[in-house]
């Protein structure tokens, strides 16, 4: 059985998705302010490595844990509504790229499974 990473299209698909996703979140009035002053290219590279790992691809992620990486954002007010906005933007990105509804649901499930870690609770 193929991995989600393979079904999505491997590295080229993950790279395209992350690039489109960050354009969406930066423009999203609900969450864009969390990215002000952030080196998006650096963040995107870490996100690509992280998503590759969690989608079943090769592991080259060397970043912080989700809890440690987002704790400063929680201190700035990051909460469930913001997390939901991120999932919406990710789903819209995948839909734009022609990803199947089943795979989009699987990605959303992976995201939901780490909600408490991202929100540091």
For the record, give the distance between the C-alpha atoms at the N and C termini, rounded to a whole number: 34 Å
Unreliable spans:
none
Q: Compute the gyration radius: what is it? A: 14 Å
Q: How many domain units?
A: 1
CATH superfamily: Globins
Structural class: mainly alpha
The quaternary organization reads as single chain
CATH domain fold name: Globin-like
Sum this structure up briefly.
With 121 residues, the chain is mainly α. The protein has helices at residues 4-8, 10-27, 40-54, 66-75, 80-96, 101-113, 115-118.
Characterization of this structure:
- With 121 residues, the chain is mainly α.
- It has a single domain, classed as Globins (Globin-like), CATH 1.10.490.
- The chain is 68% helix and 0% strand.
- The protein contains seven helices and no strands.
- Helix 2 packs across helix 3, helix 2 crosses helix 5 and helix 5 runs antiparallel to helix 6.
- The protein is globular, with a radius of gyration of 14 Å.
- The chain starts with a helix and ends with a helix.
- The mean pLDDT is 94.
